[in-house]
Each structure stands twice: as structure tokens, then as C-alpha cells.
Specification:
The protein is mainly α. Helix content is about 45%, strand content about 5%. The protein has a two-stranded parallel ribbon.
């Protein structure tokens, strides 16, 4: 089930479907995004999940990720640290 975690709250979807189907949240494109950035969105998903089975988090790089500190490798490193923290 692929859905925008900024449009549909992750918690009720996870509670209802986490043992039945693959859950694929992504940061939606709606105008009222309540996560400061992709890292806050990822951390919210990782903090809320109860296990890793069936969870695939989609993360879309933004232009700043290509030119910012560390580039794409820096973004990947930050994500890796979040995943390790909530593994």
C-alpha cells in the first residue's frame, strides 16, 4: 500500500495493515506538509513502526541534497544513522 504519509497519517495505516500487506509511505506533495524535512518524516515512520517486516520507506532526494554538505552520500549517511537507531 503506497500512500503519502503527509496526507494520510501513518499510525492508523500501520496499525490496521502492518501484518497483512507491504506498507510503502512516501512524503506527499500536498501544500500542508507537517514534517520539517525528509529526515523528520523518516524518523517519524521509524519511531512509529513496531517491526520492519513489510515496511519500505520511499525517500526522494531534493536538489539541495545534490549540492548540500556531503551531497547524496551525506543524505544517505544521515538516513543510515536513523535506520540504525530504530533497527
Amino acid at each position: 500500500m503506497n500512500f503519502g504519509a503527509t496526507e494520510t497519517p501513518f499510525e492508523p495505516v500501520w496499525e490496521r495493515f502492518n501484518d497483512e500487506t507491504v506498507i510503502v509511505p512516501h512524503k506527499g506533495l500536498n501544500k500542508d506538509i507537517y514534517f520539517e524535512d525528509k529526515f523528520e518524516y523518516i524518523e517519524h515512520i521509524l519511531r512509529t513502526k513496531t517491526h520492519n517486516r513489510g515496511l519500505m520507506i520511499l525517500v526522494m532526494p531534493e536538489m539541495a541534497d545534490f549540492v548540500g554538505p556531503g551531497g547524496i552520500a551525506g543524505m544517505a549517511e544521515r538516513i543510515d544513522k536513523l535506520v540504525e537507531r530504530y533497527a
